[in-house]
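Tokens for chain A. Residues wanted.
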């Protein structure tokens, strides 16, 4: 199980980005996939999650109404990020949920929100 993120970048406050999470060696449809970022006082926080079998989604309160997780072509999924704030600046990583843990962590993609 391996995931690779791309599509981060530098954007002004209020702008948008759409990072991608691409799977290699397995089918996304069989997993729940989550996006994560570092958080003060803990290793990382869950930003959003999608259960691929039924398209059920969840969001952290800090991004609810601004971020949207969705399927994309070619065994990939997107995280549409709108109304970005400087506090959203982070390396965003995705992972697949197994029965025991999150796995397949990619190197992450840097999102920087700055004027």
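Reply:
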């Amino acid at each position: 199980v391996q995931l690779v993120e791309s599509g981060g970048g530098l954007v002004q406050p209020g702008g948008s980005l759409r990072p991608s999470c691409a799977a290699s060696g397995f089918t996304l449809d069989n997993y729940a996939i989550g996006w994560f970022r570092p958080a003060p006082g803990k290793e990382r926080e869950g930003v959003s999650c999608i259960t691929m079998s039924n398209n059920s989604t969840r969001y952290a309160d800090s991004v609810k109404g601004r971020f949207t997780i969705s399927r994309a072509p070619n065994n990939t999924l997107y995280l549409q990020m709108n109304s970005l704030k400087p506090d959203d600046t982070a390396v965003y990583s995705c992972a697949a949920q197994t029965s025991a843990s999150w796995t397949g962590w990619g190197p992450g993609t840097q999102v920087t929100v700055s004027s």
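The first strand starts at residue 2 and ends at 6. The chain has a mean pLDDT of 94.
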